[in-house]
Design goal:
Layout lengths: L4 H19 L15 H18 L7 E7 L13 E5 L5 E4 L2 E4 L11 E7 L8 H19 L3 H26 L18
Antiparallel strand pairs: 1-5, 2-5, 3-4
């Protein structure tokens, strides 16, 4: 039996939106096409996407590429894609300005060669592993509730759920990242893998 990947991934987003809607006592949507027609569903989707970007901005094994080569265009500029949440060029004065790399030391956007950077990618919600979708959905639900109804009883319950989901997420990332204390990375400094 073949699995319809598009319907499965659309179901993931609809299920997440429904979880947010149910957290404020709203009826669930039937499918993704209903999101744009219902204001609460649009707000729920926006909260999910905002939360996803915040979570992925931390930089996890699944969305971080080290030593990624960025090439200049024909005019010597290096454009930053909207799919990039962060670009870090180690040991340099290079930053992002107006969606291009900018060398603060040289005060120039022009480069004569490619630049190697660490990139944090903004991945699609539907393509994320379960632990990430679960955590993002719970965190977004807490934020969404707070913005729309501010019920402190529900808020405290989902905050406990959020902590459990974060622990699962960190463990999942720890398994895929294969971190160890002897590596040259920043194990234990930015992300406490075991919670």
């Amino acid at each position: 039996m073949a699995v319809d990947k598009e319907n499965t991934t659309q179901h993931l987003l609809a299920a997440a939106v429904n979880r947010l809607l149910l957290s404020i006592g709203e009826l669930p949507i039937e499918d993704v096409s209903d999101i744009d027609a219902i204001i609460e569903a649009r707000l729920a989707r926006d909260a999910l996407l905002e939360t996803k970007m915040a979570v992925l901005s931390i930089g996890w094994d699944i969305n971080t590429d080290d030593d990624y080569e960025l090439h200049t265009d024909e005019n010597g500029y290096i454009t930053v894609s909207t799919a990039m949440l962060d670009v870090n060029v180690p040991d340099s004065s290079i930053v992002i300005r107006d969606w291009q790399l900018y060398d603060k030391e040289k005060k120039s956007r022009k480069f004569t060669s490619s630049v190697t950077a660490t990139i944090k990618w903004n991945l699609d919600f539907n393509s994320l592993p379960h632990a990430f979708r679960h955590y993002i959905t719970i965190m977004a639900s807490r934020i969404f509730q707070g913005r729309l109804i501010g019920d402190k009883t529900v808020y405290s319950f989902t905050q406990a759920d959020e902590q459990k989901a974060l622990l699962l997420l960190k463990r999942t990332d720890g398994f895929t990242g294969q971190y160890n204390m002897l590596s040259t990375g920043n194990f234990g400094t930015s992300i406490n893998v075991l919670g």
